[in-house]
Backbone:
């Protein structure tokens, strides 16, 4: 069965690194990628643009890109944006046999044990993990290491022949972009940026986003 890839994030703002990661996953699995902007993530400080502005930027960034879409369910749901709740909903909507994968950067994956009911995530989806500069494999926290021990695979097909529970490291060139760095750069100099999709960069200037700091 064709894998469904969910790509959750704050996207504050969405940048070219996010798009490169989503494109690499799309190419590796020949399937669609669904961006899931978070409303109010419990495991990091509040975003500096509103959730609807962040979702709008995601939509601008992926507009015209075949196979990319944006799912606003976390913005509609009251309470914190637990990935677990979105995954439960996707699982309920697509059925117990549908392979689903959560696409995630290594920095976020290392913090997984801080996520709400994180062990249950492995019952609901696979993980596709992408390296990030400064975040290698060597430092998996012990609890995560234990949970992942029997789950690693290098073969994309293994994520298609089971609904959930496997972990694959997606190989792709490292991407330097970081939303935190981009916000800091915009606070210093509020101009067009080459590390953002053009439409997103223009939207930020039009709406004076991130002009006064992170
Ligand atoms: P910040 O720098 O503020 O933490 P971010 O750039 O990590 O933001 P998020 O919206 O938090 O952006 O990222 C969404 C997901 O994309 C996370 O799983 C994150 O690890 C991953 N990601 C973001 N940027 C990169 C990158 N340059 N390379 C690989 N993964 C990335």
Residues:
């Amino acid at each position: 069965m064709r894998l469904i890839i969910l790509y959750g994030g704050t996207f504050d703002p969405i940048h070219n690194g996010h798009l490169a990661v989503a494109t690499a996953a799309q190419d590796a699995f020949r399937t669609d990628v669904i961006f899931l902007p978070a409303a109010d993530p419990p495991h990091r400080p509040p975003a500096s643009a509103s959730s609807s502005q962040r979702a709008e930027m995601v939509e601008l960034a992926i507009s015209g890109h075949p196979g990319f879409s944006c799912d606003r369910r976390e913005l509609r749901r009251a309470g914190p944006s637990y990935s677990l709740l979105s995954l439960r909903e996707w699982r309920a909507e697509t059925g117990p046999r549908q392979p689903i994968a959560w696409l995630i950067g290594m920095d976020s994956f290392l913090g997984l044990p801080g996520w709400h009911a994180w062990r249950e995530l492995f019952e609901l989806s696979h993980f596709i993990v992408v390296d990030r500069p400064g975040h290698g494999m060597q430092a998996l926290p012990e609890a995560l290491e234990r949970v992942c021990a029997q789950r690693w695979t290098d073969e994309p097909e293994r994520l298609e022949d089971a609904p959930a529970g496997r972990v694959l490291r997606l190989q792709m060139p490292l991407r330097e972009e970081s939303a935190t760095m981009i916000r800091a750069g915009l606070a210093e100099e509020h101009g067009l940026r080459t590390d953002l999709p053009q439409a997103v960069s223009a939207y930020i200037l039009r709406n004076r986003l991130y002009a006064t700091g992170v």
Q: What stands out?
A: The first helix runs from residue 16 to 29. The radius of gyration is 17 Å. The beta strands are 4-9, 33-37, 68-70, 100-105, 126-130, 152-153, 167-170. The chain has nine helices and seven strands.
